[in-house]
Amino acid sequence: MTDLTPSLCVDVTTLAHWHRPAVGIVRVEQQLVRWLLDQSPAQLHFVVYHRDQAQFTELSPAAVQNHLDRLDNYHAQ
Questions:
Q1: How far apart are CA 12 and CA 10, in angstroms?
Q2: What is the mean pLDDT of residues 57-63?
Q3: Dihedral pair phi/psi, residue 63, rounded to 5°
Q4: Are 37 and 64 in contact (CB under 8 A)?
Q5: Helix (H) or strand (E) holding 23
Q6: How far is 22 from 65, CA to CA, in rounded Å?
């Protein structure tokens, strides 16, 4: 029997590669990802695209939180 449990895949490529203060779409992505991490829905997957490999890889929630923390700390500098 095939598992038909719905999954949610969130592309956090912009967030992961952003190295300036969060503005515009990056800020929206930050807030969405924070909300999703707080909600912890079942079957939630975060992915980042690697152009050199032409593929997506999955990030753990902890890795995604590290990117959020990095952007938060950027403002503190």
A1: 6
A2: 94
A3: -65, -40
A4: yes
A5: none
A6: 15
Q: What is the dihedral of CA 21, 24, 26, 32, to 10 degrees?
A: 130
Length of the chain in terms of residues written: 77
Whether the full predicted model's pTM is greater than 0.85, yes or no, is no
Alpha helices in the chain (DSSP H): 13-17, 24-39, 61-76
For the chain, the straight-line distance linking the first and the last C-alpha, in angstroms and rounded, comes to 53
| Local structure of 51: helix, strand or coil | coil
Q: Are 29 and 15 in contact (CB under 8 A)?
A: yes
Which position has the token pair 């969060």?
22
> What is the four-CA torsion angle of 23, 77, 11, 42, rounded to 10 degrees?
-120
pLDDT at 40: 79
